[in-house]
Design brief:
Layout (H helix, E strand, L loop, with lengths): L1 H29 L22 H26 L5 H19 L6 H21 L6 H23 L5 H23 L1 H12 L5
Helix pairs in contact: 1-2, 1-6, 2-3, 3-4, 4-5, 4-6, 5-6
């Protein structure tokens, strides 16, 4: 029963972080004249020029906090054999989100460090946590999201032939998608169904 409640709490944290972040971004973008998801960076929404900078930076902090707390609770609920990588990468994501909020774009190198930590940490968490999720389709989806996010982040850094803001958003949204997928996988009904599927030989 304890693990069931802990899993539900982890799912709630990850869902709250993802939902809060997406809501903050949408509101901040709507109030920023001329802002484009395809042509402007996410970090622009947290600069002093953004009318909703406080809201966007609060969204970064909420996402970071909920991501880390959710990871701690998920590890307690599932008890994977190697929890350390999940926790380390989740902590990197949390620290990165706080740095992005504290040092806005253009204010110094720590913003870039924060963005790198948040994006790399979040996508590496998806990879590290994949083995502890059920069924096999969810494990594969978790790994695929992590790889996609890291690949887009790498392309964002090394090439200017593709739109940077789009690559940035994909590398961030893979984390958000993974949170929601992992949150669903931690719900008792999903976990029990996955266990039955694997016992019957259909889930891998």
């Amino acid at each position: 029963m304890h693990n069931r409640r802990t899993g539900i709490a982890a799912a709630a944290c990850w869902t709250a972080g993802a939902g809060g972040y997406l809501l903050a971004e949408a509101v901040a973008a709507a109030h920023y004249p001329g802002y484009s998801y395809a042509h402007d960076a996410i970090s622009d929404l947290g600069t002093p020029q953004s009318p909703s900078a406080v809201l966007m930076n609060a969204g970064f902090c909420l996402q970071g906090a909920m991501f880390l707390i959710g990871a701690v609770l998920a590890v307690r609920a599932v008890r994977p054999p190697r929890p350390a990588p999940v926790l380390v990468f989740a902590a990197a994501n949390a620290a990165g989100n706080v740095l992005v909020a504290a040092v806005h774009s253009g204010a110094g190198p720590w913003h870039v460090v924060g963005a790198a930590l948040a994006i790399a940490g979040g996508n590496l968490t998806a990879l590290a946590a994949a083995p502890m999720l059920r069924p096999a389709t969810v494990r594969w989806a978790s790994a695929a999201l992590g790889v996609t996010g890291l690949a887009c982040a790498a392309m964002w850094v090394v090439t200017d032939r593709l739109p940077g803001p789009v690559l940035e958003r994909v590398s961030v949204y893979t984390i958000i998608c993974w949170q929601l997928l992992a949150a669903a996988a931690l719900l008792p009904a999903w976990r029990e169904r996955a266990q039955r599927t694997e016992r019957d030989g259909g889930g891998g």
